Write the structure tokens for this entry.
Amino acid sequence: MTFRARHLLGIEHLAPDEIASILDLADTYSVLNRSETKHSDALRGLTQVNMFFEASTRTQASFEIAGKRLGADVMNMHMEASSVKKGETLIDTAMTLNAMHPDLLVVRHPHSGAASLLSQKVHCAVLNAGDGRHEHPTQALLDALTIRHSKGRLHRLTVAICGDVAHSRVARSNIHLLGKMENRVRLVGPPTLMPSHAADWGVEVYDTMEEGLKDADVVMMLRLQKERMDGAFIPSEREYFHRYGLDAEKLAYAKPDAIVMHPGPMNRGVEIDGNIADDINRSVIQDQVEMGVAVRMAAMDLLARNLKIVRASEEVLV
Amino acid sequence: MTPLLFKNARLIDPEKGTDTVGTLAVTDGKIAGAMGMDGATVVDCAGKCLAPGIIDIGVKVSEPGERHKESFTSAGRAAAAGGVTTMVTRPDTLPAIDTPEVLEFVRRRANEAAPVNVMPMAALTRGREGREMAEIGFLLDAGAVAFTDCDRVVQDAKVLSRCLTYAASLGALVVGHPQEPVLSAGAAATSGKFAALKGLPTVSPMAERMGLDRDIALVEMTGARYHADQVTTARALRRLERAKEAGLDLTAGVSIHHLTLNELDVGDFRTFFKVKPPLRAESDRVASVEAVASGLIDVISSMHTPQDEESKRLPFEEAASGAIGLETLLPAAMRLVHGGYMDLPTLWRALSLNPAKRLGLDAGRLRSDAPADLVLFDPDAPFVLNRFQLLSKSKNTPFDEARMEGKVLGTWISGNRVWPSP
């Protein structure tokens, strides 16, 4: 088992063997999660704080369940509603929390780089649960685990990531991860929702679904935020669905056994046809949610192990 | 006042373009032609470089309003330590320097607190809001050397054209910030592979060319004297070249940070590297350096912008822009010499001679009767920068822990030594 990182801030700085280690451990946790007791004590005695500066039901619930199944004491802080409104800065909040000696800090923040900034100021392990448009590492890991389960491998696959790539941290983390594991990554979407230099990332960029999905093994749809649909980035919802929404006709361009993924929550009838999302033969969207818990358990377990090693060595020094 | 004799100096003369060992005499605060004066105090320069002091256009001293970030005392000491003999200060203070009364306050504070020359610029429009013209005539009488709304671009072309027309009638210099304001709104980085991967809000480098294109058109229309504070991209430089060839009264500057750093220096969201305009691609950096060497870019400045830790210790998008530079301008600029891009007289043309010419000052040269504002420096002395040893109140330098070469050994204003303090 190789995992050297102190924090999980992004996929960018992880090595392929570290990614494989998380996925391998997550595999054992996914078995545990289907058993009757669903409990381990890997995080017993540790305190996990979920700090969400941006509303999220699914990710926060997933982290909470993951922590509780491993025996951690889990606390949720809804930062939108608390001190942030009173003008307290991110660093102040972090310092306050740090004084309470948490062991794992799960952070979601609307600005890129916020998790990295926090990690410089606290003594615990920081898990990035999404920072701005930058990274969402556990999402990419759970996507990887889902792909590995249904495809039997995580290399030499053609993966099409479709939709609002420009504003998506999920896309960035997935591009890093799939690239590191030697897959062929395609980005598909309207040019207004594509980062200006995406073609320099070692991926292929397409602006039609027909070209982008051709012979793909995996079709990964991204959520289109409501505020982008008002004519600023795309003309209208219905034109978007017509050109980029995943329906049976467009999915037919991909390989016959291609799987369909979506990080949720879905806009049915905007980026994905409800019938495709619910097709148990093609859609692995529910598996993604299941793998999410297992991957987060694995990531927190590995970070806690490293945290204990660091703390032990600090004690020796003292 | 005792005459001064600088002996055994490497004289860097940007006017003649020479770099020669010799002697320089100073009497009555001015450079004197006659040699071998009796009774003069001799300064043995030991073969180090003696050059006209740096004239830094665009220094932000945070008075009035944010004295905790920088005062005239602290900025003045930093300037003296950095070999900057004239600070041309920015009006983007709180409140903005947009009335003769505020300007008077600034001049009084500067005179009593700063050991170097201070020449204030004033706002072009009231409150830098881009709507109504400031009292350009009164401000000029009160001592404003140029008019600028700094990084707040006057968005309304009609307002700007009237300001330029009015300023032209008074012969006032207008300093613009070439940037298309709507396209660049909210941007924290230059669009490119790097910033897009980091998920930062970006602006295309094209926004600078668009802003410059508009300003050039208005300068052509109004006949105003115009200086672009920072031109940092190859595509805008081509427009600058054409405008100069067309004979417009137009000059341009660039910050030392855009000449020595590029977009990759931001690394993992390091906010001390967040400046305005954002750091550019390496190809644009090199184009800017070459433009300084060729003379297309006239002026190098520090764009000294003090920010306290609180304004910088935020997520990158929310963090304040700007970096301090008074003390690091000279050693950072030496990178251009040591990198083989230009020689010292060429560098000093941009640091001292051209700014003096643009502002109509006698300084910036080593000829007789020029003010004896001088800097003595060792161009090769190596050191590792420790930001906490800088004299600015704010410590937001991008060069913290950087290896640098070039140390200021002494700074004189009108023949009086101000650094190290006597």
Remarks:
- The interface with chain A takes residues 191-193, 196-200, 202, 204, 268-269, 310, 313-318 of chain B (CB under 8 Å).
- The longest strand of chain B covers residues 374-384.
